[in-house]
Amino acid sequence: MNFSELFKLTGLLSRFSPNGKCLASCVQYRLVVRDVSTLQVLQLYTCLDQIQHIEWSSDSLFILCAMYKRGIVQVWSLEQPDWHCKIDEGSAGLVASCWSPDGRHILNTTEFHLRITVWSLCTKSVSYIKYPKACQQGIAFTKDGRYMAVAERRDCKDFVSIFVCSDWQLLRHFDTETQDLFGIEWAPNGCVLAVWDTCLEYKILLYSLDGRLLSTYRAYEWSLGIKSIAWSPSSQFLAIGSYDEKVRILNHVTWKKITEFEHPTTIANTKTIVYKEVEKSPSAETERLSLPPSRASASSWFSTQSKYDISQVPVSLHHIKPVADRANPKIGVGMLAFSADNCFLATKNDNIPNAVWIWDIQKLKLFVVLEQLSAIQSFQWDPRQPRLALCTGNSKVYLWSPAGCVSVQVPMEGDFQIVSLSWHSSGDSMALLSKDNFCVCYLEREEV
Amino acid sequence: MGDWKTVTVPVLPSDGKNIFQYTSERRISSPGMNSQVLRLPLPSSKSMHTFFSAFCTEENIEQSLSYLDRELTTLGFPSIFAEPRGRELNLISVINCMNELLVLQHKNLRAQEEVEMQHLKLGSDMDHLQNCYAKLKEQLELSKREIVGLQERDRQLQTKNRNLHQLLKNEKDEVQKLQNIISSRATQYNHDMKRKEREYNKLKERLHQLVMNKKDKKIAMEVLNYVGRADGKRGAWRTDKTEARNEEEMYKVLLSDFEQRQKQLLVENAELKKVLQQMKKEIISLLPPQKQKPKERSEDGPVLSDLEEDIGELNKENMWELSCETVREQLTNSIRKQWRMLKNHVEKLDNQVSRVHSGALNDKDVISREDHELETEKLELEIQQCKEMIKTQQQLLQQQLMSPCDDDTTLLLQDCYLLEEKERLQEEWRLFREQKKNFEKERRSFTEAAIRLGLERKAFEEDRGAWLKQQFLSPDQDNRLAKSASRQRKPHCLSSPLSAESWQQTPQSITNNSAASTPPARDSKPNQWEESEGEETE
């Protein structure tokens, strides 16, 4: 594994381009585009204000930079650095901005979710979508980019509108039987839309592309409901993580639950492998001591190495008791992700914050539990192979694959607390982001 | 009580005054009786004299006698006097009376004994009964107390039960209440939320209006130049046609997804059916054949065999392509039946094994085991023998190899092992060569015959051609000639017209063997070769 040097970053805004050639990162109001393999600066753009959000267009030719405070979106072209485009929402304000799948339209959500404006870069036309729903995931595009689903709310009722992305024609408009729609997500095959309700009601509805209700699933009443959902890459399974610390898997044939995954604080099954991160005491290699001590060795003295040990089952995991009278308690399955080959599901139970649970989907059983020393910040699957990278807010990056797991110390001077990471689309490298910096880590083919 | 002694009481004149005293001190008899009637327990011999002398003395003999007579007559005895109111004693009657009195006395004694025995018995029975009564009374008391105790406990338990039921009901009621509260609060919150949302919507509308008013001033997009579309095409107007096209596209997407899924399901189905078929075959092979006896499964047997046949036929017809209900059901039903039979078989085997283990005497099992052991012993013996034989053979072989002898003898010895084989082989070779020669001869004759036939055929063809020519040129005269000619020809080569037709119909192909074996001259006339073969076979 090779690590690049640290580069400045603000706001965790670092994105690989869809074609995998470039890496865009933001420093305050500047946008820096680098080449992925050499990390040389290809382009440098200056925006009008501090950038809150950047996004590559699907053909990797354009980047949009959204500045919510000023209500401006600036679009830059990679081919023509002189080309500029500025979209000013003015008094309407700006809350969110994203590209359309064809890479030529920008969808701006104005303040208070008054409307969604569709600006076109090809023509002078502007479209408006009224009454969008103010929720976490209100806009969803199908994977092939043909259709867009928008959640709406009129007269205290939830609706979903399906638009054709090529000409923004309204295809279907139907109401959903939700109390307060929380999110929508397309299945990877683009034929089924999952719509789920607020956490006060456990309800998930599955609609077909043409607006028919295929199925409704309710696991229980009254207690807090759905926290997160994830589709499997083959659209075969829908994993629903809920506040009762369980993940329920629905199958695409009958839309009924096929299994439940529990996240108990004690793991008793002998077939589960539990990897526990333990600190390795740094070996004092006295022969290598040199005065004055170089920077690299100094940092390695003070940072503790760690490695994984296999714990004997039964294992009791460190858990926290969430505060009972607060909203959005830290309890339940809050992070779910399927691996790219559909074989594994990684979950995190928020009241066992140091553990990642990896489930074998072929056998529908718990496979591995990774117990870390501090709380998991984020994890992401390699887009090519069943390999999971996770970070816990220290300067180590952890990799797991069915062959084993490894803890890698990022050889950086100073403090580098990795809060987020993102894989390159080829699976050969990944960007490790901290609050102020980022670095790129290159993996060799024979890595874990 | 003691034995009663039968004492012959002699009549003794003796001092009898004590008798009265004696008897009056004794038990008091029934008040009705005269005090003078004596009750006699066993008096001691001492008092005998006094007793008997007390009643009658010398002075009152007559009075005693008359008194006795009176008493006896009142008792029903005959008078002791010879004549009534006489003074002379009838001795015989006196003796009789005495005897009677003795007998009576005995009887009375016995009766008294019996009565006293009975009295004692009754007394003891009474005691016993009283004891029993006392015990039973005690028991009754105890039971009553116990019952009372148990009743008390039962009552307590019932109250406890009632309390618990009550608690449960209370809890249930509370739960129900809480649920009702929750639902009512939820509706309340929803209602409030809706109200707030409506207000919020109104604000939004107002804001929207304000924003739209200022639209022309600020909200705009500045762009250097418009970019071409990603796919390079031009934008199109939105029309009904485009709408229809969009609908179509959407349905196409859905349909393709359905088709893909159906394909997957079909493939899966086919695989599963194959697996079921395999399983069925294996189950059938596992089952022992006697399980198919009709006497054991009379009703299943023929049905099964029918099913088997049907399914056997279906197997041949690529069953996995048929997906209709009946076929599917048949397959699963047959597998279920087979599986049940196999299960029964295995259970029976298990029972057998367990019986053998427990050592129960079942003829078949015991014999089989003994047989098994005998067999093993036999086999072991055989193995021993074979081993010995092999050893001896080896030894002999060793001797042969090791023994030093000159070349001739060794050669001879070596040869003698193979001599028989050699001779046999030579015989066979000879036979083979003979046969080969015969075959060659035959072949030559065949080819000659073929050549001859060919020539004949040629000649026949020429004749035929000429005859036809003649017929065409001069039809009347030559008809008769041709007919006669044909009639002549027919017996000459009987098979040839028929075979000529067959020649023309048969393909002109020769097998490689025949082509290779025939001499080059044959190649020009392949049909003849076939024809000759045909003749041979006919």
UniProtKB/TrEMBL annotation, chain A:
<dbReference type="InterPro" id="IPR036322">
    <property type="entry name" value="WD40_repeat_dom_sf"/>
</dbReference>
<dbReference type="InterPro" id="IPR001680">
    <property type="entry name" value="WD40_rpt"/>
</dbReference>
<dbReference type="InterPro" id="IPR015943">
    <property type="entry name" value="WD40/YVTN_repeat-like_dom_sf"/>
</dbReference>
<protein>
    <submittedName>
        <fullName>WD repeat-containing protein WRAP73</fullName>
    </submittedName>
</protein>
<dbReference type="Pfam" id="PF00400">
    <property type="entry name" value="WD40"/>
</dbReference>
<dbReference type="InterPro" id="IPR052778">
    <property type="entry name" value="Centrosome-WD_assoc"/>
</dbReference>
<dbReference type="GO" id="GO:1990811">
    <property type="term" value="C:MWP complex"/>
</dbReference>
<dbReference type="GO" id="GO:0005815">
    <property type="term" value="C:microtubule organizing center"/>
</dbReference>
